[in-house]
Amino acid sequence: METKVNVLDSNNLDENILKEVANVIRNKGLVAFPTETVYGLGANALEPEAVKKIFLAKGRPQDNPLIIHIYDLDQISSLARNIPEISRKFMDKFWPGPMTIILEKTDLVPEVTSAGLSTIGIRMPKSIIARAIIKESGVPIAAPSANISGRPSPTDMERCVEDLKGKVDYIVGGEISEVGLESTIIDCTVTPPCILRPGGITLDMLKEVDKDIYIDQSIMKKPEKDFKPKAPGMKYRHYAPKAPVKIVNGELRKTIVRINEMVEAYRNDGKKVGIMATEETKDQYENALIISVGTRKNMDSIGRNLFETLRTFDDNEVDVILSEAFEEKGFGIAIMNRLKKSAGFNVIDV
Ligand code: AMP
Ligand code: MG
């Protein structure tokens, strides 16, 4: 398949490109496009034939439902029913933005979009380009991350091209994803509401709307064998670079000592090591490919660079990636959730 690639400028949207992209969506095609979380791979959410193509292009398991993206609150009434008051409060406060709400679905939403569930996830993105594409298309857009299933999600156009060129109709470039991690998912079909995936809208921010909201505890732990997840995506290995990831967790001073010891051991075995360090620590390692993922003074920078850094280690064909850990509070909860998953929960405590 021929994949068209074009870049949009959010300060000056090219109407011709927008029209072309919207036509692809309306004609049941696939479009990768920027959002503030990660790049998405979109199709008309109401056309089973179009949605099926997303699963095929990504190699995504069919029981992993998609998030439906809207640009206007009026679109919700045709997609969801029995919409609880509390979900309206979350929407008022955090939409447009990196938050997905799970609601009961209407019959208009095809089974393939919800992966057979009676519920759907809905999000109104903040990205100007994403909103313009949804608006111009005139339909809600189902869009998971625009990567091959299992790999770290793309946060820029080049990574979409790497994974999807030849598999989709159109790739739209634009800004680098500002948050860098997928949306916070809140199940509003239960009381109190429950966070199924941590993201850019943190637990503390959500508690200002509902003090009883909590994080489903299973998401930070290695899934048990017979684990039946509330969000189907929770059971799959995710965000994984080609090389195995090992997280070293503990006091930073001890972490540095242990990582340096591990580097020596790997090097003696003839292995090429990647270290995911931070601005504060990067000068304290040696004999490895050392990449700073961001500064500990600004956790947003770490979220924004996390997936791109994992992919850069792949580009350099390291045999193993050793990563520092981050405190599980605020946005750090989302960062550690992705990092632990990418490591298959391989955490070494020091
Ligand atoms: P992705 O867009 O690839 O990050 O994946 C979307 C995530 O949203 C998946 O992990 C799904 O499990 C989750 N999700 C979407 N719809 C639902 C739903 N109805 N109930 C629970 N989780 C959902
Ligand atoms: Mg994904």
Automatic annotation (TrEMBL):
Coiled-coil intervals, chain numbering: none
Residues that hold L-threonine according to the record: T37, H69, R123, A143, S183
Binding-site residues for ATP, renumbered to this chain: R60, N64, T119, S145, S153, R197, Y239
All copies of domain YrdC-like, residue ranges: 15-201
Biological processes, Gene Ontology terms: regulation of translational fidelity; tRNA processing
Entry GO terms, CC: cytoplasm
The name this protein goes by in its record: Threonylcarbamoyl-AMP synthase
Molecular function terms, GO-annotated: ATP binding; double-stranded RNA binding; L-threonylcarbamoyladenylate synthase; tRNA binding
Signal peptide: none
Localisation per UniProt entry: Cytoplasm
Keyword Ribosomal protein: no
Higher taxonomy: Bacteria, Bacillati, Bacillota, Clostridia, Eubacteriales
